[in-house]
Amino acid sequence: MTAILKNFIAGEWIDGSGITRNINPSNTKDIVGEYARADKAQTEKAIAAAKAAFPAWSRSTPQERYDALNKISLEILARKDELGRLLAREEGKTLPEGIGEVARAGQIFAFFAGEALRMMGEKGASVRPGLEVEITREPMGVIGLITPWNFPIAIPAWKIAPALCYGNTVVFKPAELVPGSAHALSEIIVRSGLPAGVFNLVVGPGSVVGQTILESPDVAAVSFTGSVATGRKLAQACVMSSNMKKFQLEMGGKNPLVVLDDADPKVAVECATNGAYFSTGQRCTASSRLIVTSGIHDKFVDAMTERLKGLSVDDALKPGVHVGPVVDQSQLDQDLRYLKIGQDEGAKLHWGGELLNRETPGFYLQPALFTEASNAMRIAREEIFGPVACVIRAKSYDEALAIANDTDFGLAAGVCTTSLKYASHFKRNSEAGMVMVNLPTAGVDYHVPFGGRKGSSYGAREQGSYAREFYTTVKTAYTNPG
Q1: Which single residue of 37, 130, 422, 472 has CA 20 to 30 Å from 326?
Q2: What is the rounded CA–CA span in Å between residue 80 and residue 98?
Q3: pTM for this model (two decimals)
Q4: Contacting residues for 85 by C-beta, under 8 A, at least 6 apart
């Protein structure tokens, strides 16, 4: 019988109050593992441990933090194939995508190992004679990290690494759907030599573990990635908490890819296919709105159809697979509901959208492409989070830009064009936090800021040196030398 994998609290692996069973979406008969589920009391114990560990860790040397983060990075990178296989088996993205995500996590820890050595302050003269002014950054305290299922190693990495780098202590609550990746990452972090209580893993439902984190006056800040609805509730809870927690939200996207008449058709099709359908479309940066100008519209749709016909949809671990399964039955049901909504609204289901049978039972959905869609339709306004995209015809570049910006979201946007004029104008006038030219909307380097505008994000950016804006607080100190 497989051992139940435990939570990590106050430097010890601890049994839970229940069990989370992890099912392979490529083969629902395959149980990836069983994981202990934390309750309210255990979450409170993790928070207390993090609070107790904070004074010493916040005053640890840059070298201590560098050594720990670098050790984590080296082990992740050395085991990327093994961890990538676990990730693909658990979450359903293809094996190459899983390995790539793990490698990114390793690179993130390496980057923040270096950042631990690069933390500098400022010193200057006061406007008052004889006084000196110092501006420094200090850690926040205990940080609650709430992460989603779609990037079960990379997103935890880009929250945990900066939190530790800047001297905070961590209570990590991963999505219950992907406890295997969270547990494997946590084991590596534990082996890095961090003092007890600096890092804590609590797997459990948001209604229990997440709520306890939000209610605790000992948690200084919360970083969250997930749905818009949950993010809004979290923001309200943080504002209303007794200590008015600092919070950071990364939520949804309804990202446009604009294809202009002068675009290279092959480039446009590859950008759209990668952005809309790879990772089974389960990315907040997925390009689910393909806004295509009239001169290239029909040619683009024909080319997209042929490209989609060539995509292999199958077990995530099989060689040559382009698109793995949807993550679980609930998400598959949501995708199917939106396919019906789109047709009921008058959009044409041009290709795909069929449930697929494979050698093993899984949540297989044929990538779907709608045409004759308008930006007023729900399928063009609401995040579906699956392998579904809609084509919206535009008369001109100006109309395409207006449609692209007509959304409650503002995470990523892209344009395919050979015109420097249009590329430059789009970069300047797109109402998104991240803009791509002749590239898929999904895909951001690990050393640059990640985040958006409007309903997509709130608070400081994640990743890169900009992460310090959330994970530190600024102190201004005066000295009178006498």
Answers
A1: 37
A2: 9
A3: 0.96
A4: 95, 98, 99, 317
